[in-house]
Amino acid sequence: MQASLFGQQLTLMEELKASTSTAHARLQTAPFFQALAGCQLPLESYVGQLRAILAIHVVVEQASAHCVDDRVRSVWSADMRKLPLLRKDLQYFEPRTVADLKEAVDVALQATNALRQQSIEAPLAILGWLYVLEGSTLCASVLQPLVARAFLLRGDDGMAYLRNDGAAARYRWAEYSQRMNTLALETGERAQITQAANELFARLEALFRALYPFQQESKAYLAASINPEAGRHPVPDDARELQASVRAGDICWHRFPYFAARYGERGLGFARSDAAWQATLYPYPPAQVLQQVQWLGRVLSARGMPTLLLQVQLEILVEELASAIPERRAGYEKLLPAAAALHAARSRFLTDAQTQELAAAFDLAVGPEWRARFPHTGTLLSAAVADECGGCEKAVDSLRTWMADPRHFPAAWIDAVELTLAQARQQAAPKAKA
Ligand code: HEM
Questions:
Q1: Which positions ≥6 away from 392 have C-beta within 8 Å?
Q2: Interatomic CA distance for residues 112 and 57, integer angstroms
Q3: Beta strands per DSSP E along 282-425
């Protein structure tokens, strides 16, 4: 049954507006918004909100674009993407190394876990969430001037997500409403969508209440402060170490353009938060450090990042940490044996000389243009083969899936990838059997 007002049937958008109006009004009473209007909102609350909303958008945008239900995909449109704007805002605040608020990170994590699960079990819920998130862009005209005044911001600085592009926003909203209102929905499906919208409103209300007011003790550096998707695994509680970890992640990221091409901005976030986690390891006994690094090495290698990358990242991290706090250099250098162990594990199967030869032959085969685009590819392929021989079964396949994908690369490149893998395996296999 469709809801009706004075005998007239409501459109889906009208029904969503009517059924969430109480939740919207309640959300507006959260102390966060009063503090914002009174220029009393701490920066941690505003930045914490950006991080949490980004984590939610990661799930919702991904789930919308790849949903099994084509009605969801027909509503989703690339112009609804907010991730680039949220990332831009967080980048603006990066130099200030703003702390996380533990309770807010927990609420955001619970929300993202629940949304991820529900997007698989009941995909139509995504339409309810899109309504809430897209609708919230209409509030930007109210919120943006308050944020600008409270934090003395100008232009798009730290407020790209709230940017109010007036007529364009209205046009997008009208188009989006049209797509929603023309969906073919079965009995009961509308209720599913409005319920999902109300559930997200409730989660957002809990989030805004956790963001402000907060106890001073709830301030901490958590992984979310540098990568909102990473949640709350340990990171250094010293801002200098945290910044050094971010730099190490960035340097490694730029040294291997493969990262950016394959994993995009999301990968950069993880390069940083992984480096920050590694930076917490140095006070532990060497055997424990080694165990943790080897564990992470296996996890990453099985996902297309051979242990060579972790080794290089650790080496860069030690340098960045030591240049930030020189008096702790000896402590940070305790991470180096773990990096050396990753190298030694691969060298059992392919020596440095063999790897260099394979890499040079690869570069020659693909030519200068592709070599410049993706430097170190031959080395990465060889490293994946050595990881595979060392017991990481998926190391090669997870790298090859992307490296030999005709959507990204010409035939000559793919031939070179296959040849390098075959030759590396030929050289490494006898040692693996021995
Ligand atoms: C994250 C928090 C918020 C969310 C998720 C949210 C969500 C929404 C949604 C879904 C709509 C669309 C309603 C419709 O026409 O169907 C909307 C509209 C609106 N919201 Fe919010 N809202 C939030 C916070 C706020 C706050 C704090 C204010 C004011 C202080 C506000 C003011 C408005 C206004 C004025 C509209 C109507 C815009 C228009 O039609 O031109 N919202 N909001």
A1: 298, 301, 302, 307
A2: 9
A3: none
Lowest mean pLDDT among 228-237, 352-361, 382-391: 228-237
Strand intervals (E) in 115-234 = 219-220
Distance CA 345, CA 307 (A): 9
DSSP annotation of 356 reads H
Please, are residues 70 and 21 in contact by the beta-carbon 8 Å criterion?
no
Give the N- to C-terminal CA distance of the chain in Å, as an integer.
Answer: 71
- Taking only the tens place, the pLDDT of each residue in 195-254 is 999 999 999 999 999 999 999 999 988 888 889 888 788 899 899 999 999 999 999 999
The pick from 13, 45, 136 for probing ligand 1's pocket by mutation, whose C-beta has the most ligand atoms within 8 angstroms, reads 136
3-state SS class at 391: coil
Ligand 1 mutation pick, 26, 41, 127, 138, max ligand atoms within 8 A of CB = 138
- The answer to whether 396 and 380 are in contact (CB under 8 A) is no
The per-residue pLDDT for range 254-297, each reduced to its tens digit, is: 999 999 999 998 899 999 999 999 999 999 999 999 999 999 99
24 close to ligand 1 (CB < 6 Angstrom): yes
**Residue written as token pair 């050094």:** 244
Per the DSSP assignment, residues forming a β-bridge with 100 are: 220
